[in-house]
């Protein structure tokens, strides 16, 4: 039996019988006979054919030799945000970016597997050389979706002042993805467990609707204050007046992350209208939306009208080629193995998907020992050098007492 694909129901299989006959089975179909007698070849011939086929991916595109061996870059997460240790990541490192700074809202989250280069998700507008303000993330159970979201959020807040970005984090199923993030000064709200507490759903809808209305009101008032002909066109114009010295309070970008949005739409289909409004007006109001899900099963609620505004797509491992194609345009995400947690593809606009591996930040942290330095270069090897060789002391364990010693 020869199987192509990782999942039982969606795999393509070829079955060879003892008499030399063979049949195949397309995904989710029954076996059919494809030839009466199989071709016979020696092991040497089979080896030569296998070597010639090794340079091709399952989608039929030829692979560059460098991509066949995926690099493992040792750069730690804290190095990527400019620190030599986690202890250095403090409020003193927060930056206030100018509005034209290319690094504003440019979030490091992992490495490209082909080159080892640092991967960024730039959630600025395309006109500002970003990937766009709104996107979608899909990843089945065990794919590393929660870890990706945690990495993305922590990278953003580690480098950016709360006056420039705020967070609204929601999890319909009440998981632990955003556990502890309510303590961040950037966080406006964390709403979880909505599947069991229906009033939280309506409350979140009211909060988001109110925030969109509030920002539009602020732009109208700011227009009158600076002597403009009417309301300011958006937060970009608002920031220009602030940088010129206008007495206007900060208006941070609001990054809205909705985990398990497909299940939310199954239970509350009216939310599609709110998501559509955010996608349409959020660009100028700087309310950015990331919709994350394990599956695209939305209970019949059509999300196609959102898709033109979802300019970046991320696919970790999916359960079917259909879902992979729906998100990134290729079936590649289905063929990510169970052992590749945190591996996925990022597609921006009409560009080809780029394969990456996200950082794992939920493991135990080992602070550097005294006398140990890290190079601290983002994208570098992250190697450690010691000023002095370690000193090893021999010791002998004390004997184990069968009875407690008398005092």
Automatic annotation (TrEMBL):
UniProt-annotated binding residues for ATP: 139-146
Pfam family membership, one: FtsK_SpoIIIE
Gene Ontology molecular functions: ATP binding; DNA binding
Membrane-spanning residues: none
A GO cellular-component term linked to this record: plasma membrane
Protein location: Cell membrane
SUPFAM superfamilies in alphabetical order: P-loop containing nucleoside triphosphate hydrolases (SSF52540)
Domain FtsK, residue spans: 116-325
Main subcellular location: membrane
UniProt name for this protein: ESX-1 secretion system protein eccCa1
Gene name linked to the record: eccCa1
């Amino acid at each position: 039996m020869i199987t192509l694909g990782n999942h039982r129901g969606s795999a393509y299989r070829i079955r060879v019988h003892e008499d030399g006959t063979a049949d195949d089975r397309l995904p989710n179909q029954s076996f059919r006979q494809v030839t009466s007698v199989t071709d016979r070849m020696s092991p040497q011939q089979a080896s030569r054919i296998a070597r010639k086929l090794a340079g091709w991916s399952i989608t039929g595109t030829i692979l560059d030799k460098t991509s066949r061996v995926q690099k493992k870059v040792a750069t730690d997460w804290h190095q990527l945000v400019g620190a030599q240790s986690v202890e250095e990541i403090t409020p003193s490192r927060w930056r206030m970016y100018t509005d034209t700074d290319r690094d504003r809202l440019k979030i490091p989250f992992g490495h490209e597997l082909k080159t080892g280069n640092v991967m960024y998700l730039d959630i600025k507008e395309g006109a500002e050389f970003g990937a766009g303000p709104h996107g979608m993330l899909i990843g089945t159970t065990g794919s590393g979706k929660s870890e990706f979201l945690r990495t993305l959020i922590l990278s953003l807040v580690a480098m950016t002042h709360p006056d420039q970005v705020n967070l609204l984090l929601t999890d319909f199923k009440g998981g632990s993805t955003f556990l502890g993030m309510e303590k961040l000064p950037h966080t406006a709200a964390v709403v979880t467990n909505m599947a069991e507490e229906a009033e939280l759903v309506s409350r979140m809808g009211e909060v988001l609707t109110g925030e969109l209305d509030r920002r539009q009101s602020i732009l109208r008032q700011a227009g009158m204050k600076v002597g403009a002909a009417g309301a300011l066109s958006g937060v970009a114009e608002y920031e220009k007046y602030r940088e010129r010295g206008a007495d206007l309070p900060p208006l941070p970008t609001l990054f809205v992350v909705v985990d398990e949005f497909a299940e939310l739409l199954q239970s509350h289909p009216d939310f599609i209208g709110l998501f559509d409004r955010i996608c349409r007006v959020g660009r100028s109001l700087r309310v950015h939306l990331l919709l994350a899900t394990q599956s695209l099963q939305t209970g019949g609620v059509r999300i196609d009208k959102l898709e033109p505004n979802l300019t970046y797509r991320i696919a970790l491992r999916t359960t079917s080629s259909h879902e992979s194609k729906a998100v990134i345009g290729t079936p590649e995400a289905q063929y990510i193995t169970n052992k590749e947690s945190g591996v996925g593809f990022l597609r921006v606009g009409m560009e080809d998907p780029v394969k990456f591996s996200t950082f794992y930040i939920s493991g135990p942290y080992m602070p550097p020992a005294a006398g140990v330095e890290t190079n601290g270069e983002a994208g570098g090897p992250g190697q450690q050098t010691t000023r002095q060789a370690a000193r090893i002391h021999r010791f002998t364990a004390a004997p184990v007492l069968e009875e407690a010693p008398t005092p």
